[in-house]
Amino acid sequence: MSDRRVFVLGGGISKMAAERVDGNIRDWVTEAVMEAVADAGVEIADIDHATTSYFSDHFDKQLKMGAIFHDCIGMCPKPNVRVEGGGGTGGLAIRNAYAYIKAGLCDSMIIYGTENMGRHVPSDVAQQFIALASDTDWEVQVAGFYIAYYALMMLSHMEKYGTKEEQFALASVKNHRNAIYNEYAQSPMRITVDDVMNSPLITSPYKLLDNCLLSDGASCLIFATEEWAKTHSTSWYRKPRIEFVGTGCGSDYMRLADRPLPYPGITHFRAKKNASKQAYKMAGIKNPAKELDCFEVHDAYSGVELVSCEDLRLCGYGQSGPLYEEGYFDLGGELPINTSGGLIGMGHPVGATGINQGIEVLTQLREEAHPQRQVPLNNGQGGMDSHGGTGTFVAVNIFRRVD
Amino acid sequence: MAKGVSVFKDPEKTLYPKLPDVPDLKEGDRGLVRTKLHTFTADDPVGPKLHWDPIHRADQDPWKDFREIMRIEWKMEITYRHCLGKYSKFFIELENKKFYATECPKCGFVWAIPRPVCPDCLEITTWKELPGTGTLESYSISEFVPAFMKVELPYVLAMVKLDGADSLFTHQLRNWGTDRSKIKTGMPIKVAYTKEPVNHPLLSMWFEPA
Ligand SMILES: [Zn+2]
After folding, report:
1. How much is the ipTM here?
2. For residue B187, how far is its CA from the centre of ligand 1 (angstroms)?
3. Chain B hits for A35, Cβ within 8 Å
4. Phi/psi of residue B156, each to 5°?
């Protein structure tokens, strides 16, 4: 590989909400880009390349939407590629930016991610679109949809390790609480484990408050080489420097039913184990639980966060439940997870989600987060994990502060 | 199980930004655009209360000239002519009340959800009839399902290890009675077949307690 180093120069978020009636998807992307450009202290005219990150053409009844975003922000006639990997789309877009810059295809890359999941379609139709991201020949036909697949996984985790519903409810409590200190978050809430347990049952063992959100919103990150940043970014000399030091990617059988037993079986995320192994190796991380200061985990459902922590080696197999009780992953705990609020508190506009995660890590490593959610920096390293399907596609990315 | 939704009514706990509640225009009030639903003024969704860092957004709304919003209605209907391809024999045989899986001639793995090609070996597989019995590996009981799926609630999505297969099969568990505590992983399961016409061939079968 080339010895080029890749840095994150800035990020921008357009408010996450259940329904952004004040504008449409192109407006949100433009807002996020305007913030990112200001944050990075760059001119859009100087940026070499773009990556478009969105998941579904259905939600906005617009195919090849990347071309519209690209021309909304004055990037024509420069190159643009689209990345798509379900819920992992944003994480993969970040990986794409790294790969393109590292390979020398460009010196700077802007990536913008978004999804229009609000009430442009009734929520039942939105559920249908999301269900279509599982196997339509074999799963959707038998009334399979994502929360039910994750419920099957969680039940097997409970049976295997004795994990309790109250333990994964703690992830929901934590993420809604962390969101209170994030002005862009969709669902800041002060709730208790009892509130989660008493919210309506959706699919056992998952209740309403265990779920992530259907969101409208957009976000944007800007990456570049050191040489490019020195001549084009005013924030290079003003802000802490954040380097992109590790990326990994993994996959698994689309259908849970096909995954090999005993590992991962229907209990674990093999793709996540594989992706994180690559990313840690690349970043020179031997003990992720000790060497990372914060981690954004793909908490599509509260239990998913617990299982993810195990496969990301942030704790041992079967240990996540007791650690959530201890507050190990809370703000102020050993390894704060989803300081942004995660998908449950911040929101889950699919194509933007992974980019939101990257922005949160950037914000934390620069120590620019709200004081109530800022983590103390010991190693100056943070990670993010983004997945599509039931952990079918996974991207894990690691950032490091290097000043 | 579900006691109530008090958490959504407690303003201390819920800080969702308020969404404007704009009623649809009556047909006579739509002006020259027949599909016009609303025209209204939208607020800044960030809202002054959630601001902690005024650097990001000034108090003054920079978008104030762009807050007049119109929404329209746009209907689309799509019907697919969907091919079931090399999996078709599985679906055809369900009408004969037979459950077929595929076996890899190289590694011997039996794929319960059939595959014309074994993904581990890239070998073309052969069809193998299974007895249609097995054990429950995992399940979830749903109180909610997207309406397009048209199943009665509550329904059970089951993952079953069929006898003679090496991978699992996902389908609904039906006729389990009314006592959900009777559903247990490890319980014996059998494949049942429909007598009534169905809309998708996969619905010609389901699982039942054996
Ligand atoms: Zn084989």
Report:
1. 0.92
2. 29
3. 56
4. -115, 125
